[in-house]
Design a protein that fits this description.
heterodimer; A: 4-stranded antiparallel beta sheet; 10 strands; B: mainly alpha; 2 domains; two-stranded parallel sheet; 26 helices
């Protein structure tokens, strides 16, 4: 069996305490092997973003054991961060800078030399059709343009593992196709993609393995072919079945009653 | 500015490396931070969302105040005592400025998703934040010390001036490192949510202390006695950083220096270096945890319908004339209760009242009760009007928010008269802040000066509400939470304060005049003011808000 690139044992995370205590992750156990695209899905508030933020070292306090690339996340965070990339959902970038300035900055934090940064930036920006905007300040960019820069900055260090939290947010159809092709290519190159999303069709098409979490625990884990059933032939239907959507379909009737009556 | 900052940083490259900081990353990060400051047309001064004066204007204010403290403290004959007093004032001011203005910069988590996934150590991150703040604190310290530097040059010699400015830099760093040390210590004891609350309340307490210090300390100092005093160096003085810095400057007077003073001056050099080493190498671990917790979703407290809430509903129904007003009331109360920046802007004013009360009533501490009873009629009126007016200050904060983009909801709502939203919001703030405060002050006033004072209290209370509404009309106040906090442009606070003082003076005069006339005239005027209040609310309800709604 291939050696795991990410090992998670009993991962728990709780926010607050007392009456406002909120246990977001209740014990996640996972083994992830290299070169796979992992579709990490779940309903709102299931703990997807929290998992990703923990694995990227953004949230340093958690319970459980996480090993990435053979390093313990709590003890060797910096070593792990050198080999990972992260693409958040929102436009978390310094938008008073230009793409070139921003990518130079991010590259320098990874210790890349200026020549490498320059070459990679130029290629990546060209790939996303952003070359002509390379020296414009990003505060005038649309959400989709900013998202392209976020994806670019997430892979500029050529990471072994790429964590993506809703990376297609705000992208147009052509860009979505580009990103999907890029992810498949990266996986073929041996990179691991940890892809957290709500977009079931994209996850279904590109993922080698799908992990579904609900209420802080893993409720399904396998390839789409392994997971689909006679009753749930698409990932969307499977999602609905496993996360209690059927229950809410019944409630839709009473919702309309309420709306019509009041 | 960036080139100068980077030059200083490069000079310190080796010691920075000893702290376990990645110098290359540190340099890159600092350059970017300063570039962003310049491009945003703001600085760490503005990051707190409160100070909005230009760089030059700020420097002028600090320099003017520095001249004042320089003249006062250097009037003391003994060099050690005068400089110890001087550095005490500067360090206390810096600590208070740091706590009130720069805490948000230190724990700013807006760029967590940019920085925390990168291979940047907590040591590099902490030193980055401290250095970023140190540049601005150094700027304040330079303003405060400039005039004293000139006085030192005239009184002593060039070496004294050089040592003095090194001591100022050292004092700034000690203040910054010590305050951060305390923060990190607190963060290790309490949970993140509690830590945020403690920071907010610390900021509020220190804002009040700054005000109290400015108002009261000069009145308490016996200038003549202190001019001829000297500083005797004993055990506790060795623990007092301003004395270290004073001794360091006294090194310029070689013939006059004692062994204890040499020891103190050595401490002035060793402690900042050792402090930086301990802070960055051993305590920075907690810093990334604090930042990381800023990336999390907090657990919201569960609201339950209680008896108290039912009482509030009754009040809302009584004071509001429409469903829109009621909805605005509830929305504004819920938001302002949880908004830390709103609390920071409003709550210190209540603390400052205690200081004002002392200044107005000037109680004789040996017989406070008797002296308060003998307070003049105008001072009485001014006392409770000032308190009541402070209770209305929260209203003026209503339009400002960190998330003005959320105001799209006003444009989407099928509401015809948006003025109801403003009046509902204003009523909620009056009920939440003005009513309890004025009631308390009213009871205290009756207790001090008897029930014959009731007509004046009623007249004053209604007058305050009317004046608040006049200020809203004059300022053309926008809908709640529609304007970015940065919109509270420079000078606005000063103009508001001046206008408030004029209006308070006029109202106090009217209330005072009413004590000289028959009671029925007070009652009549009060009734007239109530009618004007109702008319003002009616007029506000018809307002159109072109700025917020287009």
């Amino acid at each position: 069996m291939e050696k795991s690139i990410i090992t998670i044992r009993g991962l728990k995370k709780t926010y607050g305490n007392g009456p406002s205590k909120n246990e977001v992750l209740k014990g996640i156990d996972l083994e992830i092997t290299p070169g796979q695209i992992i579709g990490y899905i779940g309903p709102n508030g299931a703990g997807k973003s929290t998992t990703v933020k923990i694995l990227c070292g953004i949230i340093p306090e958690f319970d459980g054991e996480v090993t990435i690339l053979g390093h313990n996340l709590k003890n060797d965070t910096l070593e792990i961060k050198k080999h990972i990339g992260y693409v958040p959902e929102t436009g978390a970038l310094y938008d008073l800078l230009t793409p070139n300035e921003y990518l130079s900055f991010i590259g320098a934090l990874y210790g890349l030399d200026s020549k490498t940064i320059e070459t990679r930036s130029a290629n990546l920006l060209s790939f996303f059709g952003m070359s002509k905007h390379a020296d414009q300040r990003m505060d005038t960019f649309s959400k989709g343009m900013k998202q392209k820069i976020l994806i670019t900055s997430g892979i500029i260090n050529n990471p072994d593992i790429l964590f993506m939290d809703e990376p297609l947010s705000g992208l147009d159809a052509n860009s979505v196709i580009l990103v999907k092709e890029l992810l498949i290519k990266l996986a073929k190159e041996g990179k691991t993609i940890f892809y957290s999303s709500h977009l079931m069709d994209v996850v279904e098409k590109i993922s080698d393995r799908i992990i579904l979490i609900n209420n802080g625990i893993v409720v399904a884990d396998g390839t789409f072919d392994e997971l689909k059933t006679e009753k749930a032939g698409t990932l969307e239907m499977l999602f609905a079945q496993l996360t209690g959507r059927e229950e809410s379909v019944v409630n839709t009737e009473s919702l309309f009653d309420t709306l019509n009556k009041n | 500015m960036i080139a100068f900052a980077m030059l200083i940083v490069r000079i310190l490259k080796t010691p920075i490396g000893w702290l376990g900081v990645n110098f290359s990353q540190f340099e890159t990060l600092l350059r970017i931070k300063l570039t962003l400051d310049i491009r945003s047309g703001s600085s760490a001064f503005q990051a707190s969302g409160r100070k909005r004066y230009s760089f030059g204007a700020q420097f002028f204010v600090f320099a003017a105040f520095g001249l004042f403290i320089g003249i006062i403290t250097l009037a003391v004959a003994d060099l050690m005592l005068s400089l110890t007093l001087h550095f005490t004032v500067i360090m206390v001011m810096l600590a208070m400025t740091l706590i009130t203005e720069f805490t948000t910069v230190l724990f700013d988590h807006r760029d967590n998703l940019i920085l925390l996934p990168r291979p940047v150590s907590h040591r590099t991150l902490l030193l980055l934040r401290l250095t970023h703040i140190q540049f601005y604190m150094g700027y304040i310290a330079l303003g405060l010390s400039l005039a004293t530097g000139v006085i030192v040059a005239i009184k002593y010699n060039a070496i004294a001036v050089l040592l003095y400015f090194i001591a100022v830099g050292s004092g700034t760093w000690i203040t910054l490192a010590f305050t951060t040390f305390l923060y990190l210590l607190i963060s290790k004891i309490v949970n993140p949510e509690r830590f945020k609350d403690i920071l907010t309340y610390l900021q509020i307490i220190f804002a009040v202390l700054i005000f109290a210090g400015y108002q009261l300390v000069p009145r308490l100092i016996d200038e003549e006695a202190i001019k001829s005093a000297t500083l005797s160096i004993h055990g506790l003085v060795y623990l007092f950083p301003p004395a270290w810095l004073a001794a360091f400057v006294k090194l310029s007077q070689v013939s006059d220096i004692s062994t204890p003073e040499v020891i103190l001056s050595i401490l002035a050099v060793i402690v900042p270096v050792a402090g930086a080493y301990i802070l960055i190498r051993f305590l920075s671990r907690g810093f990334d945890v604090i930042l990381g917790e800023g990336s999390t979703e907090s657990a919201a407290p569960v609201n339950e319908k209680t008896e108290k809430m039912r009482l509030k509903d009754t009040l809302i129904n009584f004071f509001c004339v429409s469903a829109t007003e009621r909805a605005a009331w509830k929305m504004v109360v819920s938001s302002t209760k949880r908004d830390r920046k709103f609390k920071e802007a409003v709550y210190p004013q209540f603390g400052m009242l205690a200081v004002f009360a002392i200044l107005i009533l000037k109680p004789d501490l040996k017989a406070p009760s008797a002296s308060i009873h003998e307070t003049g009629e105008f001072a009485k009126s001014f006392f409770f009007i000032l308190f009541g007016f402070t209770g209305t200050m929260a209203v003026l904060q209503l339009p400002f928010t960190d998330t003005p983009e959320a105001s799209w909801i006003y444009r989407a709502l099928p509401v015809k008269d948006h003025g109801h939203i403003l009046t509902g919001a204003v009523k909620s703030m009056l009920m939440r802040f003005f009513a309890p405060l004025f009631l308390t002050v009213g009871v205290i006033s009756i207790w001090f000066w008897g029930i014959t004072f009731i007509p004046q209290i009623l007249l004053g209370g209604c007058g305050i509400i009317l004046l608040t509404l006049i200020m809203i009309i004059l300022q053309k106040m926008d809908l709640p939470f529609t304007q970015p906090r940065e919109m509270q442009k420079k000078g606005t606070n000063t103009i508001t304060a001046i206008l408030s003082m004029i209006l308070m003076g006029i109202l106090s005069g009217i209330v005072y005049a009413s004590t000289l006339l028959p009671v029925w005239i007070s009652i009549l005027v009060t009734a007239l003011i109530i009618s004007l209040i109702l008319l003002s609310f009616s007029s506000l309800r018809k307002w159109k808000f072109k700025k917020a709604l287009n």
